[in-house]
Recover the amino acids of this structure.
């Protein structure tokens, strides 16, 4: 078993002990995110250093999943990895969309706990402190955040989100808030047990629903939301919505076959 450096600071529980968690992995799915890449890695690195210093984690790693970007994202990611031993890059030769990128990120992560989020930093990265503390205190297997206020995205996407969350509740009898928000903290044992199949934006719901149905503990908490200020989000396109519906019904069929949808 790998040994992790001990901090000379007290951890968040106030005692001198080994870290609450071993390695903490953070990964960012990126498609043409040259404007956000450096800021995302800098924020995650700063928080990772804080978590090591306070004894919450033993070490951390940052992963960029480059989804066949056509801008400078691949080059910038490789340069960041060359300059920082904690940064690694996964390159997709062809575009695999959000679901494929998240699956690659989880597969590449080596940590005992893994956090994924978007490159545009939709929340303050220091919320990772709170997420890890909640995971430890409540012995949760998945910690997922929901947005206090997402009206900054406009009413169309707000309505889409409400309908989507209702669909998840009806199809799977799981009461999750803001299921597609890009803030998922997951223990290694969940990733070892759940086989994700979605290639599209349904991947978030698939992860949470599958974990819940397999008996893992899922905890949610609210956070402030910072809308994207540069670049373009594609999650409201009709083709994306159609793919979400297709993958949602495929998961329901699979869970029905296992007899766990109603649980």
């Amino acid at each position: 078993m790998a040994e992790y450096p001990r901090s000379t600071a007290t951890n968040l529980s106030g005692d001198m002990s080994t870290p609450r968690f071993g390695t903490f992995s953070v990964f960012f799915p990126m498609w043409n995110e040259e404007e956000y890449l450096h800021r995302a890695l800098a924020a995650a690195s700063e928080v990772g250093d804080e978590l090591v210093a306070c004894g919450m984690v033993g070490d951390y790693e940052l992963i960029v999943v480059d989804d066949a970007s056509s801008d400078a994202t691949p080059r910038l990611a490789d340069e960041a990895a060359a300059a920082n031993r904690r940064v690694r890059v996964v390159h997709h030769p062809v575009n695999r969309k959000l679901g494929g990128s998240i699956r690659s990120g989880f597969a590449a992560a080596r940590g005992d706990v893994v956090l994924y989020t978007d490159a545009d930093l939709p929340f303050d990265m220091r919320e990772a402190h709170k997420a890890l503390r909640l995971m430890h205190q409540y012995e949760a297997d998945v910690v997922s955040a929901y947005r206090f206020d997402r009206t900054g995205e406009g009413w169309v996407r707000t309505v889409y989100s409400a309908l989507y969350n209702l669909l998840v509740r009806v199809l799977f009898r799981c009461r999750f808030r803001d299921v597609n928000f890009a803030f998922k903290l997951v223990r290694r044992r969940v990733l070892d047990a759940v086989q994700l199949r979605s290639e599209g934006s349904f991947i978030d719901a698939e992860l949470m629903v599958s974990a819940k149905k397999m008996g893992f503990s899922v905890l949610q908490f609210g956070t402030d939301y910072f809308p994207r200020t540069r670049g373009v989000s594609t999650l409201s396109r009709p083709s994306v919505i159609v793919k979400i519906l297709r993958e949602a019904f495929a998961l329901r069929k699979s869970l029905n076959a296992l007899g766990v949808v109603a649980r």
In short: The CA atoms of residues 20 and 182 lie 24 Å apart. Residues 21-256 form a domain with the Spore Coat Polysaccharide Biosynthesis Protein SpsA; Chain A fold (CATH 3.90.550.10). The beta strands are 21-30, 57-66, 87-91, 113-117, 142-147, 183-187, 218-223.
